[in-house]
Each structure stands twice: as C-alpha cells, then as structure tokens.
Amino acid sequence: MDRAVVVVAAGSGTRLGIGTAKAFVPVAGRLMLARALEPLVTLASPTLVVVVAPSALVDDCRELVASVAGPAVAYTAVVPGGTDRHGSVEAGLAVLPDTVTAVLVHDAARCLTPAAQFERVFDAVAAGGGAGFVPALPVTDTIKRVDADVVVETVDRAALVGVQTPQGFPLAALRQAYAVSQQAETDDAGVFQAAGGTVRFVPGDADAFKITTPWDLGRAESIVRASAAVPVPRVGLGVDVHAFDAASPCRVGLLDFPGEVGLSGHSDGDAVAHAVCDALLSAGGLGDIGGTFGTSDPAYAGAAGDVFVRGAVAMLAAAGMVPVSVTVQVIGNRPRIGARRTEMQDALAAVVGAPVAVSGTTTDGLGFTGRGEGLAAIATAVVRAS
Questions:
Q1: Tens-digit pLDDT profile for the chain (386 aa)?
Q2: Residue 151, CA distances (Å) to 33, 157, 277 in order
C-alpha cells in the first residue's frame, strides 16, 4: 500500500453550537464523517484511510467507519486525536506504514469534497518531484487591507487563492516537517513550507468548503438536497438483426420503402424500431423485446414497429421513468436512409416522446450485412425518473 489519507475528525465544533463533536453532526440526515468518508471508498486504487477521532468517541467512530467502508474495512484505522489539529495530524501520520509514499490530510468538515479532488491531489504528488500540493480556488471577491475600521488599500486578488483539503505530500517529508514544526502554522501546507518544502496548487472544487458555522451547515444540507433531487439518467443498449425477405414489404425506422426488399420476422421485421424498443427496455431494467412481447405471440403477428416502441415507453412510464434521448445506427447496404434520415428521426421521436438521432453505415462488404443478406441496428437510449 503506497498511498493513504488521514481524515482529521477530532474537532469539537464549538462554532456550530450543536453540542457534539463536529464530525458527528448530521448533514441532511447522514453524519458529517460518513459523508466525508464515502468518496474515499470509491477511489480507483487501494488507499489506507486513517481517521483521527475525538478520544471519547473512538469506538463509535470505528463502528461508523466500518459501516461506510464495508468489505474495505481492512484498509481503515481509527486513532484518538491530540489536543489540537497539529497533534491530531501527527497521531494520524504516526500509524501509517513506511510503505506509504504519498499521504493526503483531509478535514472531515469538508464532507462534500468529491472523489475527483482526492485523485487530482494524489496524481499531483506522484508526479510532483517531492513537492506538496493543495487544492485551491481563485479569490473572486474584492480584497481590502484594513487598519482597525479604516480601509487602507485594495489587494491584488490575482495573486491570491482560497486553499482547501485534502492537502497532499510525500509521507517522509511531511513527517519530518511536523517533527520540527513550532505549531504556528494553520494548515499542513504551512507546516511543510516552513520546513523548506515547496507547495504547489491544483484546481479545487466549490463543494469542498469547510463547515464551520450554522450557515455553512445549512448550505451543505441544501447542496445535498439539490443533488438528491436531480434524477440520475440510465442508459440502455438495444441490438436487432433481420434477414431480407423478398416476400415482405420493406419497413425500416417506422417508414415504408417501396420497391425495396423487405425484412423477415414474426412482426414487420423493422430492425430499427425493435432495437429502439430493446434499448428503452434495457435502460429501464425492464427486460427485452422477446421476453416482453413474445416472438411467437399471435397478437404481434405482422405488428408494426411502433407497437413495440409505444409498449416500451408505456412500461417505462409505469415504472416512473421517461425517455430522454435515443440514438440508433442502421447497418446495411440497403435501403439507403440518407435522404430520409430527418423523416425517420421525426417518426421515431413522435413515438418515443424524446429526440432520436439516426445514422447509417455499411460494413464495406464484410459479414452478412456486407453480403446483402440482412439489416442490423444498434440503439442507445437514455431515460430518467419522471
């Protein structure tokens, strides 16, 4: 294991005024520490996570960490914190194995920090040649220097950034920096820099703000509620293939192509409509066209493709979902759809109830489509909760 995150969660949270350790304050129904840990168990590479907890809550913290980590609990540890942040960070660093080369120090109070920010800092430390890295955002407010209640001057904000966590460093260098620190610095980058280290920054994230006051807590809860209210889209894939049949009329993408050889099938053989139906069902987790409508059911003998697409849309609606968009590619030598692409898109969109994009291609003479034996279609559908 060559990388680790020390999560500092030993703060009292006095300014929140809630009367409990800050990391154990609920944020929209979930403890702050739990929200801070959740992104860590999604990281792509194995990462040791050390939580520095209030001394009186170490056992409670272990239970919480285990519930969040699940099967990855073996990659976690909980240690009691010190009398201040400086001592707590040192306690976390002390238990890391020497195999760790890169360590990130993170404040649990920045509980909405996305996983991408951790990865960004880890990547920077790995490529940084011994430097430390902090995530930072540009300062957007006008900054004034004051003397008591008198504004003295405007400070050039172009040279200023707002610093966040996690802050990342080579482990050995950060340990040495803390060993010689006089505890005057306010963050890990300050300790590292005071010991002669170079600190650079990477882009931060607006959601990685620190919860310090009741206003911050309210802001965090609003962000969580807004995020939960956004429907997560679902994607489905559909593929259909039909052989040509000279005895059948040609119907593709809900359009008739007079004079073209048709497609065989229990229904009208419309491979495009069938692929769209399958994609919609797949996105909704509702099975497939064969299992849903039956390839031998007499009710669907000769049925037009729109019957199946409308059926899939109705099933999505019953499951509380609606189509967002569909993309379908027609693969074959004929019929040529280029001149009727817009017409086909409009016909399909009218049934799907969402935009449909159609494209066509051939296989340069390869395979059954290249030999002119049949037609294939591949569709992708995006749906969301209604």
A1: 899 999 999 987 777 777 778 999 999 999 999 999 999 999 999 999 999 999 999 999 999 999 999 999 999 999 999 989 999 999 999 999 999 999 999 999 999 999 999 999 999 999 999 999 999 999 999 999 999 999 999 999 988 999 999 999 999 999 999 999 987 777 999 999 999 999 999 999 999 999 999 999 999 999 999 887 777 899 999 999 999 998 889 999 999 999 999 888 878 889 999 999 999 999 999 998 888 887 667 777 778 889 999 999 999 999 999 999 999 999 999 999 989 999 999 999 999 999 999 999 999 999 998 898 999 999 999 999 88
A2: 40, 16, 67
Say which amino acid occupies 73: V
